[in-house]
Amino acid sequence: MSMANFPIFIKLKNCPCLIVGGGDVASRKVQQLLKADARITVIALKINSTLKGLVRNGLITHLQKSYEQIDIEQMELVIAATDDRKLNNLIAQHAQSRKILINVVDNPDAGTFIMPSVIDRNPVMIAVSTGGASPVLARLLRARLETLIPASYGKLARLISRFRERVKRQFPDIRERRRFWEHILQGPVAEMLYAGQDQRAMDSLEKQLAEESPYEDSRGEVYLVGGGPGDPDLLTFRALRLMQQSDVVLYDRLVAPAIVDLVRKDAERIYVGKERDKHALPQNEINRLLVDLAKQGKRVLRLKGGDPFIFGRGGEEIDLLSENDIPFQIVPGITAASGCASYSGIPLTHRDFAQSCLFITGHLKDGTMNLNWPALVQPQQTLAVYMGTHGIEILSRELIKHGLSENMPAAIVQQGTTGEQRTYITTVKDLPKIPEQYEVKPPSMIIIGNVVSLHEKLAWFEPDKS
Ligand code: SAH
Q1: CA-CA-CA-CA torsion sign (288, 292, 297, 303)
Q2: C-alpha to C-alpha distance for 138 and 124, rounded to whole angstroms
Q3: Is 310 a residue whose pLDDT tops 60?
Q4: Which of 17, 21, 165, 306 is the most exposed place for a label (fewest CB within 10 A)?
């Protein structure tokens, strides 16, 4: 099948361009053209407030008149964006007879060019077109690409162009040069740039250029990524991108299977076990494994449930990496307290009920529950208890003993944000009864405080009980 429209990118800096029409469609086109520094004239009897603003700021010229054929003289590009179809087609005829580029907004076939959806990572531009078949499809595709391409991709392109000549001199052979760039663009240098460490990225590139054989001793890197509480929709763009470029992934029970599924298909998967399970890999062995894999030059994804720095031992895992000088980055995730709160309609703070919120764990390193009880029973405060079900009786008893009202509302949110989410509402006194009466499946989060009473009104996510 032949191409109905041939994609090219065109320079418009200081080019005289005409937009006929003054409504929202016209103003969107004007804003797009402005990004290319075009010299823009708008012809319309009435223009919308956006266009008025642009006129006021001297960015475009407005001629308040009806369109006439003579208006396209001297123009290099015309967009017919009135709501009069006939007029639009007439403008198209005029423009075509003068070989002026013309786009007709409501009738792509009548013009000589169409405007794509653009993913702008200046100087990198990605244009998506469905040949006018479906602007909605183009928009959806664009949204997908937006999530996959880091916002600072343009910086990468600028870095390359700065080093281009030097790399060319150093690697006269084109295959070798390509290999070098591939290595740079897919490794730590690119990641440093995305993470805003521009100077480090540049230093590292310099260093690799200075080496005899830049890739032989290439180190891998580690991504410590928060996978959120379970719903894959709650991943960050960065998390998803790193998940799709890793060579090997280490994950544990807390990471929902739907999330592990999004890791690159051919990445090696290493299950590092369950917390209370004898098959679990001890923490120090996980730390060691991360270092060893990275030293083999691999891009290692350490995927954690929730946020890696909230009861996630993220700090311990990074420690050894830093000692071994292995590049790493840490990507925050939505922590269970936050996910469970939103998905069960229990705000963690509220002007009437709670001015503070404590994230605490009911499971301490030495196995006890030796918490700072007086601090936990302060008024106007919400408690979000991680790993609390095992010690639920002690929790309930001690809170009451230290002064919390026994009728204080409390909730247990099971498997928050997933299809298995259940919310049990009770009081602090009756908390221990819930796991006795119901089969509460892990992981689950306990939320205590007056905010829990809002659940009744604010709950919105209630998956069907299967
Ligand atoms: N780093 C994680 C927490 C790890 S501790 C985070 O930021 O969320 C593990 C505890 O988190 C579990 O025992 C449970 O209390 C809580 N948790 C994790 N995911 C959960 C979920 N989807 N629903 C309810 N609680 C969850």
Answers
A1: negative
A2: 18
A3: yes
A4: 165
252 carries an active-site annotation:
yes
Distance from the CA of 151 to the center of ligand 1, in angstroms?
Answer: 30
Is residue 307 annotated as a catalytic residue, yes or no? no
Say how many C-beta atoms besides its own lie within 10 A of residue 117's C-beta: 19
Task: Tell me how far the alpha carbon of residue 229 lies from the centroid of ligand 1, in angstroms.
Answer: 7
CATH T-level fold of 16-115: Rossmann fold (3.40.50)
Nearest alpha-carbon partner for 112 in 8, 201, 239: 8
pLDDT digits (tens, 9 = 90+) for 180-196: 888 888 888 998 898 88
The 3-state secondary structure of 16-44 reads EEEEECCCHHHHHHHHHHHHCCCEEEEEC
- Is ligand 1 within 6 A of the CB of residue 310? yes
The pLDDT, as a whole number, for residue 365 is: 62
- Ligand 1 atom 6, closest CA: 306
Q: Say what the pLDDT of residue 280 is.
A: 75
CA–centroid distance, 42 to ligand 1, in Å, is 56
Q: For residue 211, what pLDDT is reported? A: 79
pLDDT at 243 over 80: yes
pTM tops 0.70? yes
Alpha carbon distance 328, 294 (integer Å): 10
pLDDT tops 70 at residue 110: yes
Mean pLDDT of 267-274: 88
Quote the pLDDT of residue 279: 64
Architecture of domain 337-458: 2-Layer Sandwich (3.30)
* CATH assignment of 153-216, among 3.30.110, 2.30.30, 1.10.8, 1.25.40: 1.10.8
**Does the C-beta of 338 come closer than 6 Å to ligand 1?**
no
For residue 17, the cross-strand partners are: 40, 77
H-helix segments, 85-233: 85-97, 135-148, 153-170, 174-185, 188-194, 198-210
Backbone angles phi, psi at 114, to 5 degrees: -120, 160
